[in-house]
Amino acid sequence: MTAKTFDAIIIGAGQAGPPLAGRLTAAGMSVALIERKLVGGTCVNTGCMPTKAMVASAYAAHLARRAADYGVTLSGPVGVDYTAIKARKDKVSNDARGNLESWIAGMDRCTLYRGHARFESANTVRVGDDLLSAEKIFLNTGGRASVPDLPGVDDISFLTNASMMDLDVLPRHLVVIGGSYISLEFAQMFRRFGSQVTVIEKSPRLIGREDEDVSAAILSILVNEDITVHLGAGDISFARKGNDIAVTFSAGKAPAIGSHVLLAVGRTPNTDDLGLDKAGVEVDKRGFIVVDDQLRTSVPGIWAMGDCNGKGAFTHTSYNDYEIVAANLLDNDPRRVSDRIEAYALYTDPPLGRCGMTEAAVRKSGRRALVGQRPMTRVGRAVEKGETQGFMRILADADTNEILGCSVLGPGGDEAIHCVLDLMYAKAPISTLARAMHIHPNVSELLPTIAQELKPLA
Ligand SMILES: Cc1cc2nc3c(=O)[nH]c(=O)nc-3n(C[C@H](O)[C@H](O)[C@H](O)COP(=O)(O)OP(=O)(O)OC[C@H]3O[C@@H](n4cnc5c(N)ncnc54)[C@H](O)[C@@H]3O)c2cc1C
């Protein structure tokens, strides 16, 4: 056994751990960075990067099939080479991981340990035969796909976001359990690759945290591409049926028979095998590490960043956690989680960009509000691109003129949302947006127009 003392230990090389190692080592501290699997964690290996690479392939296939709409002729039918799609996706992920590994290897005073880390006490962590101690310990252990305890789930071979990445055949019929962000991205991309796709969601609508009209618009986008969607599906169970899998559910007259089943019903934090009890670190009833506004856990000297603390479920929230911890520790800058404004995207095509409050949340808050909305059919850039599904909406406080939230479901919605998000960070009133001159022709160009035409939220 080797015992070694560092200034800091970081468990998990996800989205917060490596940049924090960079800052701490640059400040002269010795750091042990521990990773049990692949450097880069979920985002780089089984999450954002590979899925967005596949979304790009799916978009290319979709556009090629629509070539005639644009007056473009193809000499034959559109083919999809799933092996090539996977190879491209693998290269995107592998290159990013390689770059990250080189960056870590080049950090003075940083030692990368490969293995599973577990607390032995509040300042000691075991990795294999190594016993590492530090006064400061940072947790960045992320999460994994939840496996629901549904009848028959143990009898079938199911896929999760992680095993989807190794799949080397195109499913004949992919049955997706769950109708939220991760599931819908997979559903649309595999439909575009040529699989038959069925989505089974237990709630009465897709992505239930969005406004009802956003859910409805996304449903129609998917149904327009011949994706079968079952909503309000209770009592889901699985059974093997020859080489296929039968998925039975209450809303279905007949079971969905899939060649493959993807479970995408939520995420579970990687905190159950960390020995947190040995350190005395508190977790909530779902297993998330309890942290304060500056990401300190219940034990002095231990911080938690990223998906494992339940304060966010995105790469940008994990990276922002790193920035908050580094600012507090190294820059005498008391940044807080509560400084940030909720923002994220759904990478279907067209994508949904979101920031701040939904209309439902604004109504629930009881404040007097203004709302402006425009369908993509009345957005020049969307018409020119032939991509007119979706709409955008802005909400503002009628008394203070504060911008409360925005949804952009349409081409470039994931990018356009940032012009509203940054105004919200600047605490600029809605009149700033209304008076801004945006570039023509763009989807964002219409945001000032919407801001000029706000009406009371009835
Ligand atoms: C399919 C999919 C698509 C997604 N798309 C997006 C997107 O487009 N945009 C977005 O913002 N977010 C997206 N996300 C979410 C995003 O990937 C995560 O929020 C983000 O990766 C979380 O980062 P993290 O730093 O908290 O942890 P992770 O990236 O999960 O990293 C945690 C690391 O800790 C390691 N680890 C865990 N336990 C231990 C231990 N005991 N010892 C040693 N190492 C350990 C793990 O192996 C892992 O490498 C997506 C997620 C999925 C699943």
TrEMBL record:
Name this polypeptide is given:
FAD-dependent pyridine nucleotide-disulfide oxidoreductase
Residues binding NAD(+) = G178, G179, S180, Y181, I182, S183, L184, E185, E201, G266
Q: List the disulfide bonds.
A: C43-C48
To which protein family does this belong? Belongs to the class-I pyridine nucleotide-disulfide oxidoreductase family.
| Pfam families with a match to the protein in the record | Pyr_redox_2 (PF07992), Pyr_redox_dim (PF02852)
Cofactor(s) demanded: FAD
InterPro entries documented for this protein: FAD/NAD-bd_sf, FAD/NAD-binding_dom, FAD/NAD-linked_Rdtase_dimer_sf, Pyr_nuc-diS_OxRdtase, Pyr_nucl-diS_OxRdtase_dimer, Pyr_OxRdtase_I_AS
Q: Which residues form the Pyridine nucleotide-disulphide oxidoreductase dimerisation domain?
A: 345-448
Chain positions recorded as FAD binding sites: K52, D307
List residues of the FAD/NAD(P)-binding domain.
Answer: 7-318
Q: How is the cofactor bound?
A: Binds 1 FAD per subunit.
Q: Which residues form the active site?
A: H440
Any one Gene Ontology molecular-function term assigned to this protein's record: flavin adenine dinucleotide binding
Listed A to Z, the keywords are: Disulfide bond, FAD, Flavoprotein, NAD, NADP, Nucleotide-binding, Oxidoreductase, Redox-active center
